[in-house]
Structure formats: C-alpha cells, structure tokens
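User: I'm putting together notes for a lab meeting next week and I want to include a structural view of one of the chains we've been expressing. I don't have a solved structure, so I'd like a prediction I can at least talk through. The sequence is below, exactly as it appears in our construct file.
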Amino acid sequence: MSRLILLNKPYDVLCQFTDELGRPNLSHFVDVRDVYPAGRLDRDSEGLLLLTDDGRLQARIADPRYKLPKSYLVQVEGDAVEAQLDQLRQGVRLKDGMTLPAEAERIDDPELWPRDPPIRVRKYIPDCWIRLTIREGRNRQVRRMTAAVGLPTLRLVRWRIGEWTLDGLTPGKWRAVQG
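Assistant: Thanks for the context. Below is the predicted structure for the 179-residue chain, given as structure tokens.
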C-alpha cells in the first residue's frame, strides 16, 4: 500500500528534505521516512504539497502529460477585470510558449491564515483574489501567467491537486490519506 501525505507547506520553506544552508525545508515539518514530493511548490508559494513513497503515483501527480488539475488562490496586484480573466482562460503566451487554457475567476477574499511575513501593501494600488486552475506545471507558471495579463502575483496558495485539497490543514501540518 502506498503512502500519500498532504502537507500545507508554509511560505519560505524549500520543497526538499535537506539544505546545506540550513534553510527551512520539509524535514522541519514531516517526520515520515522515505516519502518524496510529487511535484514542486516554490519557496515563496504556500499550500498543498503531496508527498508519497510510490514512484508511479508520484509520476501520475507530477507529470504534465496526465494533466491533473491544480487550483490556486492568487492575490494579485490590480483590479482583475473580465478581459484579463478571459486571457487566462484562453491561454497566455509566455517566453516558453503558449500555456494551456486555464479556469479563472475572481473570488471574494478567502479566509486564510496570515502570511509571515505579510505581503507588501501599496496604499494607492488595489489588489484582489482570483482562483486559477491549470493542467500543466511549468516553472513559476501561475506567477508568469498573471504577470502576462497585467496582474502581478502578491500571494500564491495552492489549494487543490486533483481530488486532494487543503481543507482542514493549517500551515506546517500534514495528514496521511489513501494513495
């Protein structure tokens, strides 16, 4: 039976179990042996990270050819309008080519934990939240997509990967589920 762990990765934590520079990493939060991240989540991003001891499951989760949907709650600088959301829905041209179409919608401010450190707030520049669901996993893709449509990312929280969500998990906490 394969093990699958859902972790709410805090901001500024590396998606690896060791770091020769002593930076916060997965070993500070997960005390389970022989599990490895299925995919990555940037150090400056928060949210759902899946860890498993099953190579096939790891590939099914992380490999873009399986097109497993990944949903993010994204706080962006600016006031997202329908035209910008439509661009995300149609796919965005990045330096490494066109992205696949995404699901994009503006949402009310979600009830999330405070981020430490807090995001920068500009007194005269509005911000808002969008939910963005993608089916590929390019390097820093969500940040690059929102920037390409004029909405730089301030905070990025991965909420869902396929059927698994962050529901009930606070930052740094994890739970085992059926793999």
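A couple of points you could mention at the meeting. The mean pLDDT is 94. Residues 69-161 form a domain with the Alpha-Beta Plaits fold (CATH 3.30.70.1560).

User: Perfect, that's what I needed.
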